[in-house]
């Protein structure tokens, strides 16, 4: 019984990465945790889920860490991974609290790797489905690692996932199962036969040089006869210069020299006395007009004019709303917020499509305001588009999750301009509040 329990524990630990079908059916809930993803010595903390003994991790964290760009289409339910020129570090995903029992939401998707559709399968070749939790796509780690050609090692005790290239030395193995109780001692076996002698080892290194020996006996005297005369030696170096001699007698007078060059001009002399006064010159031309003088005092107020016709008291305007609590699949490049409920003061405005955009028929200055309310906080940004171009004075770029977006101000619109409202900058789903989940208003205040 104890050996069977130890075997079961080992199988459960191994299946946390392998995803083999030990469970009779898919679980409806899983346990959340925080795990460390380690790639090439870089470690990042991120969310993870364990269900049916399978480890699920956010695809963004693993893809970025292993040099892939991620694109998710909620409309087509497909995820694409494309190789980048340079690697990135793992992206932390922090959306769910650890040690929570979570109701699982499985999602059937199409998975593409560098443009080629690829099946995500477990060790038995069975197709596995990812989880979609808190606007984040979680994929089974072993199936994803096999698809990317990676090795994966899971340390359950330290909650650490180590990824490496296929064929490289594997990381730390999964945590060993608990040690079972010591079994009964077996009988002593027979002594085995003596093994064959090993091969002769390599020759050792040369030893150090020995000490110098004692001096040998003195040799016999050599031949003392004179040798032959040597060759003439080379010429010696020049001697030092002699002392300076006495001064000689003065020479004869030389011939007259040539005439020298002309000297420089001398300095200017002092000014002479003033000459006699000349005759008057002719009259000059008329000068230019002078600058205008300062303005005179204001004149008296004129009589009051006749009263003009009475105004209508109504400025042209329109409003559009979304009150249905719509679910919007937001993409990085932007998704239009539909507002099918449309109200206008006159025919100066019209709605196009299913409340996707609104046309202005008269040029002028307009007061524009909008508001978006979601049921949960997300990392989305909002903006106003006019005839396909972003108007930056109404753009809200968020650095943290939020559930409210609103902006207002004056904008110059031309006849025929088309106005729409978008959410952008994330891959995920935004659920609008019921009631006034989204609204857009335009009021013309001047031509």
UniProtKB/TrEMBL annotation:
Keywords: Signal. Residues 318-446 form the BclA C-terminal domain. One of its GO terms (cellular component) is extracellular matrix. Transmembrane segments: none annotated. Residues 178-190, 229-238, 252-264, 279-288 have a biased composition (Basic and acidic residues). Residues 164-177, 191-218, 265-277, 298-308 have a biased composition (Low complexity). InterPro entries: BclA_C, Collagen, Collagen_superfamily, Cu_amine_oxidase-like_N, Mao_N_sf, Tumour_necrosis_fac-like_dom. Residues 1-23 form the signal peptide. The keyword Protein biosynthesis does not apply. Gene3D superfamilies: 2.60.120.40, Copper amine oxidase-like, N-terminal domain (3.30.457.10). Residues 128-167 form the Copper amine oxidase-like N-terminal domain. Pfam families: BclA_C, Collagen, Cu_amine_oxidN1. Residues 163-308 are annotated as: Disordered. This is Copper amine oxidase-like N-terminal domain-containing protein. It comes from Paenibacillus albicereus.
